[in-house]
Structure to design on (239 residues):
């Protein structure tokens, strides 16, 4: 776990022996379950610790240190638990909700959480388009996360309705994001967001360009959004 340790330290996260053991268990459970459930195309040890685990921890760059221990966070389209579970391992005090539409992946998440001994995690099986209209979750979260789920215009519609006023949505992106970001401006504004920053992740552990798109929630999202399942991706709100 040397690359994970080194990268985490650059983020100001100093992982204990217990936390490193949790990441070790996470890796082996991921590889084991991946034989029967399509969780990831990446199973190499070094790749997973950098491109999955460390990449997930970069979300901490968008967090205020004084809020780390009490944030209420939702991870939309979490898949194998990324970025939510690595963040929970590193910052044990956060309260976490994981949204995953595929039941078999949710089964893995339940198993993993038990194996890791993590608490204050809720798993919801369903589509973000529908869950966002549930009053228990709508505009309830300090921090909304999403990693590799959709293009930003659709992603804004899927995520910003979960974010409370004064909260933050963080999208993890890589490569050339200029055009995607420009197309998303209308959706971001319409759904109550305001772009705060595009933060470049300059860690030497990564061999590509990675960014955090950080959006503050400044006004309520209109009640009609998100639209029915599939519509945000099929007909995105674009400039």
């Amino acid at each position: 776990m040397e690359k994970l340790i080194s990268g985490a330290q650059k983020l100001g996260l100093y992982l204990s022996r217990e936390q490193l053991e949790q990441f070790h268990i996470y890796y082996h459970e991921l590889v084991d379950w991946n034989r029967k459930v399509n969780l990831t195309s990446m199973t190499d040890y070094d790749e997973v610790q950098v491109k999955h685990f460390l990449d997930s921890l970069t979300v901490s760059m968008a967090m205020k240190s004084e809020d780390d221990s009490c944030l209420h966070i939702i991870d939309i389209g979490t898949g194998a638990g990324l970025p939510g579970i690595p963040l929970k391992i590193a910052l044990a005090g956060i309260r976490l909700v994981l949204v995953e539409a595929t039941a078999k992946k949710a089964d893995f998440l339940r198993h993993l959480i038990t194996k890791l001994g993590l608490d204050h995690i809720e798993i919801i099986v369903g589509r973000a388009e529908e869950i966002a209209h549930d009053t228990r979750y709508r505009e309830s979260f300090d921090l909304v996360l999403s990693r590799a789920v959709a293009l930003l215009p659709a992603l804004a519609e899927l995520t910003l309705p979960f974010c409370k006023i004064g909260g933050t949505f963080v999208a993890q992106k890589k490569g050339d994001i200029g055009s995607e970001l420009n197309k998303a401006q209308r959706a971001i504004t319409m759904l109550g967001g305001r772009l705060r920053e595009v933060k470049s992740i300059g860690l030497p552990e990564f061999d590509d360009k990675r960014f955090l798109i950080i959006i503050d929630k400044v006004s309520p999202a209109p009640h009609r959004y998100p639209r029915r399942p599939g519509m945000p991706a099929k007909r995105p709100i674009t400039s």
Remarks:
- Residues 2-234 form a domain with the Rossmann fold fold (CATH 3.40.50.150).
